[in-house]
Amino acid sequence: MIRRILSVFEPFILTLVGTVILASLLPPRGVWAGIFDVAADIGIVALFFLHGAKLSRDAIVAGMRNWRLHLAVFAFTYLAFPVLGLGISALPLLSGTLAAGMLFLTLLPSTVQSSIAFTAMARGNVAAAVCSASFSNLIGIVLTPLLVALLIQGTSGPGGVSMQAVEKILLQLLLPFVVGHLLRPWIGGWVTRNKKLVTTVDRGSILLVVFTAFGAAVVEGLWSKVSGGDLAIVMLLCCVLLALVLGGTWGAARAMRLPREDAIVLLFCGSKKSLASGVPMAGVLFAPTEVGMIILPVMLFHQLQLIACAVIARRMEQGGAEPAAAT
Question: 244-278 pLDDT, tens per residue?
């Protein structure tokens, strides 16, 4: 039994946990913070460039046409999640700011790079994952601030976050993917022969984003504002929320009779929330004194979803186990 439990924690999971601990103990400061920001951006750009070079034109067209799948991802991201968030935030377990943070978490768009990386690891429909995750982030630029203004009191206006987020998505995600795909006739064969390189970039980009984003929040003094009891409650609620959406997305995929490759996309794209989008949005939408507490649930959920999805994706890659078996 002990050996089976330990087998779940393969090197990537242990590295991920170690990255969180390292970011808490030695967060990048000053010039190093800028260096890690640039490194994380480069990793994300490289990830999308390589996936663009790897995918065939037919696969991309098929992914864009899969409207049932994209609609299901949208429904979980912006309907099911907010409903769960309203219920959780109404529980008399947290202070007003932390409760608002739990609700804010559920209003965010899906992740992009990790959703695609885990979909690829689990042998899912990567083209459809690119379309679903990118669409979620694009619509979230407008929809998330509107939902925050509607459901959370005491927020400021959306300011200029929309154009910043649009620029980041276009320059760091979509443009590298398009360029990589256009260069596929010349480099596609080389990328296919070097699958280890794509895997390294996938996992490396996740670790860089986790270390950079989590470290930046720690520098702002997060841990001095939250008690151990508050942290335990938030962690428990995040675990419950994650379990509900993981089970819900896989159950919905079965009910819709989606092919396994598409079911994997719904599982990973429909169950995630973006720390990379959440932190800058919180900085614009909330008062500076509230931001640290607001983003705490986002950070904890982000780490939990990465660890859980990494375990699930790895088990699917090795033996085709379903999420229930992987967890």
Answer: 999 999 999 999 999 999 999 999 999 999 877 78
Residues 7 and 25: their CA atoms lie apart, in Å, by 27
Eight-class DSSP state of 111:
P
Residue spans of the domains in the chain: they are: 17-326
CB 211, CB 19: distance < 8 Å: yes
What is the DSSP secondary-structure string of 43-109? HHHHHHHHHHHHS-HHHHHHHHH-HHHHHHHHHIIIIIHHHHHHHHHTSTTS-HHHHHHHHHHHTSP
Within 10 Å of residue 31's Cβ, how many Cβ atoms? Answer: 8
Highest mean pLDDT among 34-38, 154-158, 242-246 belongs to: 242-246
The yes or no reply on domain 17-326 and CATH 3.40.50.2300 is no
H or E stretch at 253: helix 228-255
Q: For residues 72 and 270, is the Cβ–Cβ distance under 8 A?
A: yes
pLDDT at 2: 41
- For residue 112, give the DSSP letter: S
Q: Which three-class secondary structure state does DSSP give residue 225?
A: coil
Instruction: Kindly report, residue by residue over 73-107, the tens digit of the pLDDT.
Output: 999 999 999 999 999 988 888 877 889 999 999 99
pLDDT at 139 over 50: yes
The burial of 100, by beta-carbon neighbours within 10 Å (0-12 exposed, 13-18 middle, 19 or more buried), is given as buried
| Pair 46, 194: CB distance under 8 Å | no
Mean pLDDT along residues 321-327? 49
Q: Is 119 helix (H, G, I), strand (E, B) or coil?
A: helix
